[in-house]
Design goal:
The protein is α+β, with helices and mostly antiparallel strands. 25% of the residues lie in helices and 29% in strands. It is built from 13 helices and 22 strands. The strands form 5 sheets. Strands 5-6-7-8-11-12-15-16-17-18-19-20 form a 12-stranded antiparallel sheet. A 4-stranded antiparallel sheet has the order 9-10-13-14, with no helix packed on it. Helix 7 runs antiparallel to helix 8 and helix 11 packs antiparallel against helix 12. The chain is globular and about 65 Å long.
Length: 456
């Protein structure tokens, strides 16, 4: 299967295999001699072995902070650190994982095109380009806040979309999301599995993403590649996502297999994505190529994967303009996600925008952000104690736990399903008359289902 998907035997993308063998992995060098710690490596995607020690001194950490963080973190090497480590706010961005899930909606017009498209293969070109488009935003090196159990995020005023996400589990951390407009519905159960490696961490997307195109009821299933975050402590942090992305039309059996090339020596291959749209018989129909931080293009191909005579490569997606020198490398859309411009008329008090730690970090007050983060975490622990003492169980409000277990390349996943209640809530809020105008930024953050918990 893999050899056929990647067409390594010849054709338009035969160079993929040779590039992998020629370039190998990124340049790396142990910084043991520099800082006295074993097992740490600095990886410079565009550098050489000679500048690894200079590269190790770069990044957002001061020397004393790096040393202290390493002493705290080295015992976790080889572990899944998704929820077991309390991290300093200096490495955070003013956004939660629930908001980050909404970033997939920036180029949602591509799903609109997929729904309107009659060609089944071009439908997959549009849909897979949508799936790739978010990687430009995902290359940010700041960590989003882990949501509090019961926390939510709502978004409206973008492409006719209504979006809701909710933190449905704390251990293990899991989120669920639903988006909808006149062309599609988007449903995701999100769970991450990590492996901490010292100066890097591997992130495995142990989740399920489904898109339903409304015109024909076509259901698309997305399996993204894993991600590696390099230079967590020493050097400039950067992100790579080597591996396959597979988008399958569960209705017809057609699919897209796109290969994210790993970053090689001197940055060779970084950002590059190549692959094919296949029919249900696994015959290539359209080739796709581009860079996940720039654009994607497509061209019809023959049975050998070669471009058809008389056709040309056409661009299907290009990244939008971004702010210059933005502190957190945010896109314009990311700023919209954080603002109240995309909030509904009657915002839930559990919304991520209202988190005091997130807001303090956005305003540049790291001290307050750290204190508020610790307070929220302690309140979450207190609510759990109260809930367990009363024999009560947390129940998500907008999503229902199902009996379905879906396999992923990195393990089985319990699935949460959108229950439709938010659609009714949102419609009622919009149709209500006489609602007093409220400064929603003044609403107190309250995700607690079992009373507003205070900690003395």
């Amino acid at each position: 299967m893999a050899s056929k998907d990647q067409k390594q035997g010849g054709g338009f993308f035969a160079s993929i295999a040779s590039s992998l063998s020629n370039f190998g992995n990124a340049m790396q060098k142990s910084v043991n001699g520099l800082v006295g710690y074993e097992g740490l490596e600095v990886i410079n995607p565009e550098g050489t072995a000679e500048d690894a020690e200079e590269e190790a001194q770069r990044g957002r950490w001061k020397q004393e902070d790096r040393d202290g963080y390493w002493k705290m973190m080295h015992k976790y090497i080889g572990s899944d650190v998704t929820s077991m480590v309390t991290l300093p706010v200096i490495i955070f961005e003013p956004m939660t994982m629930l908001q980050k899930m909404a970033e997939l909606m920036e180029y949602s017009y591509l799903l609109d095109h997929a729904d309107e498209c009659e060609d089944p293969y071009m439908r997959l070109v549009y849909a897979s380009s949508w799936a790739i488009s978010v990687y430009f935003a995902y290359q940010r090196t700041w960590k989003p806040f882990n949501p509090i159990l019961g926390e939510t995020y709502e978004m409206v005023n973008h492409g006719g979309i209504t979006f809701i996400s909710e933190q449905v589990s704390h251990h293990p951390p899991m989120s669920a999301g639903h988006a909808e407009n006149e062309h599609f519905t988007y449903d995701v159960t999100s769970k991450l599995k990590t492996k901490f490696l010292g100066n890097s961490v591997d992130v495995y997307p142990l989740g399920r993403t489904r898109v339903t195109l409304k015109r024909d009821g076509v259901v698309l299933d997305l399996v993204p590649p894993p991600t590696k975050v390099n230079n967590l402590i020493f050097g400039r942090t950067w992100v790579d996502s080597p591996g396959e992305m597979i988008l399958t039309n569960l209705t017809t059996g057609d699919k897209v297999v796109l290969y994210f090339q790993p970053c090689g020596w001197f940055g060779a291959g970084r950002y590059e994505v190549d692959g094919y749209v296949y029919n249900a018989a696994e015959e290539p129909k359209i080739l796709m190529t581009g860079k996940w931080n720039e654009s994607m293009s497509y061209q019809p191909c023959d049975m050998e994967g070669e471009p058809l005579s008389g056709t040309e490569l056409k661009e299907v997606w290009r990244v939008a303009d971004v702010p210059q020198n933005d502190k957190f490398q945010y896109t314009f859309f990311a700023h919209k996600i954080n603002s109240f411009d995309t909030a509904p008329r009657k915002l839930l008090a559990s919304d991520s925008r209202l988190r005091p730690d997130r807001y303090a970090l956005e305003k540049g007050d790291l001290s307050k952000a750290g204190a508020e983060k610790s307070s929220l975490e302690e309140r979450q622990r207190a609510e759990k104690r109260n809930r367990e003492a009363k024999g009560q169980h947390f129940t998500p409000r907008w999503f229902d736990f199902t009996d379905e277990i879906t396999p992923t390349p990195w393990g089985d996943l319990e699935v949460y399903q959108y229950n439709g209640k938010y659609t009714a809530h949102h419609a009622a809020a919009n149709s209500a008359n006489g609602i007093d105008e409220v400064d929603i930024s003044s609403i107190e953050f309250n995700p607690w289902q079992y009373g507003s918990v205070t900690v003395e």
